[in-house]
Specification:
Ribosomal-protein-alanine acetyltransferase, 35% helix, transmembrane, globular, Aminopeptidase, 5 helices, single chain, 5 strands, N-acetyltransferase activity, alpha+beta, membrane
Length: 161
């Protein structure tokens, strides 16, 4: 496998492959039933509403083999901007080929260039290979925190309290 790879910003024309990769990633994590997004949601919310950004990584023949979805958030404790990595995925046949590393390099550069003080993301505890990958970068892991989320169907009850 060649070491040539290209990282680029996704465009609306890439919505179908982004959607396909989201579905593949969810299936690999046994979370396929949790995906409610449609390709149209990707087109509208990422490219029209600009809710997030997507980096694509291509191999030497410009086939797309992975992506990173990210957006900017705010940290109350530092009062600074944070790059939040929502999802990073590389096709199985291209893992350990430097593609994830290239995406992380680009994300780290974006974090600094946009004036962010950190990059942050979640990773399932069961995904040992991803955790090992992130550990090589010096990522900190916080065992004392839990993910809290109110799903859409429960929000009305909270909002009407």
């Amino acid at each position: 496998m060649s070491n040539l790879m290209y990282v680029r910003e996704a465009t609306a024309d890439d919505s179908a492959i982004i959607y396909r990769f989201i579905l593949e990633h969810a299936r690999e994590e046994a979370l396929g039933e949790n995906v409610t997004a449609t390709q149209e949601d990707i087109e509208n919310n990422i490219f029209k509403e600009k809710m997030a950004h997507v980096l694509l990584i291509e191999n030497e023949v410009h086939a797309i083999v992975g992506y990173a979805i990210y957006f900017f958030a705010f940290s109350a404790f530092s009062a600074n901007k944070v790059l939040y990595l929502e999802d990073l995925y590389v096709l199985k046949n291209y893992r350990r080929g430097g593609f994830g590393k290239a995406l992380m390099h680009k994300l780290a550069r974006l974090t600094l260039d946009k004036g962010c003080t950190r990059m942050q993301w979640l990773c399932p505890r069961e995904n040992l290979s991803a955790l090992a990958f992130y550990k090589t970068w010096g990522a900190k892991f916080f065992e004392n925190y839990s993910i809290c989320r109110l799903e859409y169907d429960t929000l009305n009850g909270v909002a009407d309290f």
